Amino acid sequence: MDFTDAPIDQTSATNLAEQQLTLALVDTANDRERYAAWHNVVNRGFYGERDDEKDVEFLLNAGAYRRTTGVWDAAEAGVDPVATVSTWSTPLSVPGGTVPTWAISAVTVAPTHRRRGIARNLIEAELRTAAACNVPVAALTASEATIYGRFGFAPAARVSKITIDTKRASWAGPTPTGRVRFIELDELFEQGPAIFERERLQHPGEIELGELLWSGTIDYRPGKEDKAKDIRAIQYTGAAGEVQGVAAYRVKEGSDDKLTASVLHLAAATDDAYAALWRFLLELDLVRVLEADLRSTDEPVLWQLSDVRAAKVAPYDHLWLRIIDPIAALEARSYSRPVRLVLDVVDPLEFAQGRFLLEVNDAGSASVSHLTENAPADAGHLALSERDLAQIYVGGASATALHRAGRITELTDGAVAHLDAAFHSPVAPRLGIWF
Ligand SMILES: CC(C)(COP(=O)(O)OP(=O)(O)OC[C@H]1O[C@@H](n2cnc3c(N)ncnc32)[C@H](O)[C@@H]1OP(=O)(O)O)[C@@H](O)C(=O)NCCC(=O)NCCS
C-alpha cells in the first residue's frame, strides 16, 4: 500500500471518538479552506505567524504529496482542527544506502485540548500506518527531548552549532580552482535541492528535500521576497562551470556591535565546493563571527582553520528515529565489520519486539532473521530496547557508551565491541534541516 492511499488508523479513530473527537485526513486537492485552517493551527501550535493567501497557495502545492491529518472536536464550530500531524514516506540515508522512512512533522495539539492523550493517539496511529505500508523506520525532529522516547524514538544523529571567531582563524584548507559568485534567491531556490540531493547520499541521517523543506531551510519562499531582503546567496562552480555547491547567509549586528554572519544553509556536493564556500564565508570583510547551525559533529571545516580554538562547537540531539521493522531496517544498511549477533529487542509498543539474528558478510551486507528458538551458541548475544536500536541504527551513538550507561546488556563477552565495530559509520550521521 502506498503511503498516500493508506486509510486513517481505526484504533486511534475509535479511541478519540470516545471523547467526541474525529481523526481525519484533509483532502488537500479539493478542500482549500480546511487545509488553510489546518496549517494555521500548526502555525499557532509553534507560535508562528498566520499565513496569507500566497503562503497557502505555496504550501498547498509544495505540500500536496503529504498526508495531512487532523483531529476535529464535534463541540467546536468551524473548520479548525484541535490537533495536527503531517506525514510522508521518504528515503533516509543510512550507511551504504537508504531506507524507506515515515517522516512525522507538524505535531500539535491545541492548548485547549492538551494532555488528554491526543498526541499519543496521533503518533501511535502514524506508527501503525507506517507498519501497514511496510515502512520500517519513522523519523522526526523534536521541539522537546522529553516527548518522543515513550513512543520508541531515540536521538540517532546529533548535530552541532559552530561559532567561529573569524579574526582569530584564517583559512588553512585547500584552494579550489572554481569560482564563487552571488546568485539571486530564486536561483538558490531552484538549484539547492539538486545539490543537497547529491550531498545527502554521502551523509547517513539525511532525508529527501523537496521545495517545502528547502524553503523552510533557506527561510525564503517564492512570492515572499519582502521577508528575505537580508538573505544573500552564493554558488560555487567547478572549472568546467558546473554548479557544485550553494550557500545562503545573513549578516547582522550582534549585541556587542560585532557583525555576525549566520549561515542558513551550506550544501556542497564536492569537497572543492565545501572548501570554497566555507572560505568565502570565513573571509567576509567586517564580519567578526561566523555561525552555522545543524552541522555535523565531525565537520571538516574545523580542520581547515589556522587556529582550531577559534571555533566553538555545541552538539545537540536532532534526528530522532523509531525502528518499526528491525529486519527491513537492519538489512537496508551496510556494516563496517562482519558479525554474527543475536539481538533481543524489547519494545513496549511491540513493533520491534523479538529475537533477531544479524549476520553480516565480508562485504558488509546483512541478512537478518527472526529467531523463535534459543540463540545459537556461536553468535554474540545482546539485549537492548527498541530505543537503543534506534539510537545506534545509523552509527550516531556508541553501543559501548549505552552499555556503560546500563542500557544495552551484553549476554556474551565481547558482543558490545562487535556491535560497535559493525554499526560504526565513517561519516558521522547528521540531519541538516528541521522538518
Ligand atoms: C507536545 C504536544 C503535541 C503534546 O500533546 P498532548 O495531546 O498534550 O499529549 P498527550 O496527552 O497525548 O500526552 C502523551 C504523553 O506525552 C507526555 N507529554 C506530552 N507533552 C509533553 C511535553 N511537552 N513534555 C514531556 N512530556 C509530554 C504526556 O505526559 C503523556 O505521557 P504518558 O502517556 O506517558 O502519561 C502538545 O503539547 C503541543 O502541541 N505542543 C506544542 C507544539 C509541539 O511542541 N509539538 C511537538 C513537535 S515536535
TrEMBL record:
Family membership noted in the UniProt record: Belongs to the acetyltransferase Eis family.
Pfam family membership, one: Acetyltransf_17
PANTHER family: N-ACETYLTRANSFERASE EIS (PTHR37817)
GO MF entry, a single one: aminoglycoside N-acetyltransferase activity
Subunit text: Homohexamer; trimer of dimers.
Binding site for acetyl-CoA: V107, T108, V109, R115, R116, G117, I118, A119, R120, S143, E144
Ranges where the N-acetyltransferase domain occurs: 21-174
Domain of life of the source: Bacteria
Keywords: Acyltransferase, Transferase
The protein, known as: Putative acetyltransferase
Active-site residues (renumbered): Y148, F435
Protein species of origin: Paramicrobacterium agarici
GO BP of this protein: aminoglycoside antibiotic catabolic process
InterPro entries to which the protein is assigned, alphabetical: Acetyltransf_17 (IPR041380), Acetyltransferase_Eis (IPR051554), Acyl_CoA_acyltransferase (IPR016181), Eis_dom (IPR025559), GNAT_dom (IPR000182), NAcTrfase_Eis (IPR022902), SCP2_sterol-bd_dom_sf (IPR036527)
